[in-house]
Specification:
By secondary structure, the chain is of the alpha/beta class. It contains 12 helices and 14 strands.
């Protein structure tokens, strides 16, 4: 189906849905994400996952007896002040139930006081910093369907040990996200004295080289690098590593921030010269369920996606898709758009078969994390830029 035909088909679907619910006001869902950040794909991925889920929910009758879901989108451009402004705007919208966020933990951490003050439901789909959920709120208005730093860093540190690389160097974003990751890594290392963090070095958003940081890790005796940086800095690191003699290149175990942008394009051919492994929670290559087939049927109409290869930032799409379906169930359980009632209902949702996994109980009163360590997998980036599970890295060509 051509792009124009897909647009026409999507419009017909939405016009039909609108006609069915013309007499019922929409239930609003907010999205505050980093659309204005150069080369970032994470906000777009979360939006795509939300729109695919909403299309399915609305086609099945919407929520609350026929009210359609409607997405309201704002761009914080990676700037906390703009994110705070967006959150206040969302909080004042009648019938807005919840706000979804994307990848940028530092922005979301700065938004926490506003979320607490306004009691706005916040749905975290990609941001991993531990303080986002461990925020001290009573009751807690933040729910996360994403990996988080405690389990991510534990897995990467264990991966280093499995490689017999017991001297670990940390390359960290100089943000709240990086500090959260450092604390998690140090906590794990304290319980596993056979693995030592030999040095931690910091990267700033506008750095143009990672050479000084990497050299500091080498000089400290690092046998492996655990990197907690985003795609732009990650690409710089890979290009500079590839230019070094082979005996100076270390395996890089990377947090998933690099997958939120066009990392493979930015890194270029250098990516093939570095052993670069990335944390993920999900791969569409392993999604064989009826839910996955339904997902692709809707995604094909809205975005022309036919296969895993077509999805640039899979975790953002999958997490948003599952979390939107869970939220819709909570809205119906609450029988209302009242945020406090929906918040309570989110802790009562049961037995949802999602893309990422089957959620027996996604959330509970003392557990607002839907994923756990068992959901982690290690991946590589294939020659064509597609993210594949580590053991599936020899897959070649597009899979249609």
């Amino acid at each position: 189906m051509g792009r124009f035909a897909r647009i026409i088909a999507a419009c017909c679907v939405w016009l039909w849905l609108g006609a069915q619910a013309a007499d019922k006001p929409p239930v609003l869902i907010g999205l505050d994400a980093e659309f204005g950040v150069a080369d970032s794909l994470s906000g777009q991925a979360v939006e795509q996952g939300l729109r695919i889920a909403m299309a399915q929910i609305n086609a099945a009758g919407g929520v609350l007896g026929g009210r359609p879901l409607q997405l309201e989108v704002r761009d914080h451009a990676g700037l906390p002040a703009r994110g705070i402004r967006n959150l206040r705007e969302f909080a004042n919208l009648p019938d807005l139930v919840a706000v979804f966020g994307a990848r940028f933990s530092p922005v979301i951490i700065e938004e926490m006081p506003v979320i607490k003050e306004t009691q706005t439901l916040f749905m975290a789909t990609w941001s991993s910093a531990d303080p986002i959920v461990e925020n001290g709120m009573e009751p807690n208005y933040v729910f996360r369907l994403s990996l988080f730093d405690k389990i991510i860093m534990a897995r990467m540190m264990q991966e280093a040990a499995d490689l017999r690389a017991y001297r670990v160097g940390l390359l960290l974003s100089n943000t709240g996200w990086g500090r959260s990751a450092q604390a998690a890594a140090e906590s794990w290392a304290a319980a596993h004295p056979e693995v030592k963090i030999v040095h931690a070095t910091w990267a700033n958003r506008r750095d143009t080289t990672m050479a000084p940081q990497y050299r500091a890790l080498l000089d400290a005796g690092a046998q492996v690098v655990v990197a907690v940086i985003n795609d732009d800095l990650g690409a710089i690191l890979i290009r500079e590593l590839a230019a070094l003699p082979r005996d100076q290149r270390r395996t890089v175990l990377s947090h998933w921030g690099v997958t939120g942008g066009d990392f493979a394009k930015q890194a270029g051919p250098a990516l093939n010269k570095v052993d670069f492994r990335i944390i993920q929670s999900f791969s569409f290559f392993r999604a064989k369920s009826d839910v996955a087939r339904g997902f692709f049927a809707t995604a094909r109409t809205l975005y022309g996606w036919n296969a895993p290869d077509d999805i640039a930032a899979p975790v953002g799409v999958a997490h948003a898709f599952d979390l939107m379906h869970i939220l819709a169930r909570a809205i119906d359980l609450a029988g209302s758009t009242d945020r406090a009632q929906v918040r309570d209902a989110l802790e009562r949702v049961r037995d949802y078969h999602g893309l990422v996994k089957f959620y027996e109980r996604p959330f509970a009163p003392r557990r607002h994390e839907a994923l756990d360590a068992s959901d982690i997998l290690m991946t590589r980036i294939r020659d064509d830029g597609v993210i594949v599970p580590l053991e599936d890295r020899r897959q070649a060509g597009r899979q249609k």
